[in-house]
Amino acid sequence: MKTPVLYIVIPCYNEEEVLPVTSGLFLEKIKSLIAAGKVAPESRVMFVNDGSKDRTWEIIQELAASDEHFEGVSLSRNRGHQNALLGGLMTARDRADITISIDCDGQDDINAMDAMVDEYLAGCDVVYGVRSKRETDTWFKRTTAEGFYKVMNALGAETVYNHADYRLLSRRALEGLAQFKEVNLFLRGLVPLVGYRSSSVYYERAERMAGESHYPLKKMLAFAFDGITSLSVKPIRLITGLGFFISLASFIGIIWVLLTKLFGVTVSGWASMACAIFFMGGVQLLCLGVIGEYIGKIYNETKARPRFIISETTFDKEDKGE
């Protein structure tokens, strides 16, 4: 097997504080992999600017001008982490034999890349970076994150437990991923659907090196709900089951009311009736909301708008949207 060309793909959104800190670590890592003969000298670190409002793109341009191992891609506007990551992967697809995606904040252990490349050389097309423990997280974040993976798998969405978007993909795996054309992206669930031989590398996650997290609780919950509704129809089936259960309970209630009427035993009380009405109204609105979420996703898919548009790069390449 020839020495592979590696592209480290890093989505960035308003990372002017952390980028000057972590860029040196990424450069040092790719140079060490080149020196060890694991990857080819043409390997690069590719930053993807996701429509940042600060100096992120200017910093990426400065890094690209300072060292040939840095490259930059800028999207035409903010499209979200998953679209920015896909944009970088699809841009690197024709330039690299393997890609490793990682966040810019320096929390993921970059030394795990050595083991990832070793797994690729051993024949794996997909290598997942998996957190061995979550001691750096607060109790709330740890509990909700672990619950997220369990709920996702319970609802039929195939995900790797404690794996985010730190992974290695071979060119063959990227070609497979490119065949998935959906607009509603949840890469943690799509990559396992690509198939091919895979393995996992375990690491410990550190604290963010600088700046603030761009994933508050509200965004995390929205991301989780998007993942569930993008990959599974089980919530719709649960609604069907809930409707059947409530209908059965209502039917039994009707029989009970008729029997009490026939035997002259009546129970008066508007409060119980009001509670039942409010309960049913709430259930109906919840069910309509879930169904509406699916309809909204169908609406977006049928329009087939581009998932990303590249406006500028630090290397010679035609502007591209996909």
The main sheet comes to: 8 strands, mixed
Low-confidence stretches: none
- Report the end-to-end length measured between terminal Cα atoms: 31 Å
Task: Give the overall average pLDDT.
Answer: 78
Number of domains: 2
Helix % is 40-55%
Helix and strand run = EHEHEHEHEHEHHEHHHE
Radius of gyration: 25 Å
* CATH overall fold name of the largest domain: Spore Coat Polysaccharide Biosynthesis Protein SpsA, Chain A
User: Under the CATH scheme, which architecture of the largest domain would be assigned?
Assistant: Alpha-Beta Complex
Give the C-level CATH assignment of the largest domain: Alpha Beta
Strand order of the largest sheet: 7-5-6-4-1-2-3-8
Structural class of the helices, strands and pairings? alpha/beta
Oligomeric state of the chains in view:
single chain
* Gross geometry: elongated
CATH superfamily of the largest domain: Spore Coat Polysaccharide Biosynthesis Protein SpsA, Chain A
Number of helices: 10
- DSSP strand content: 5-15%
Q: Got a strand count?
A: 8
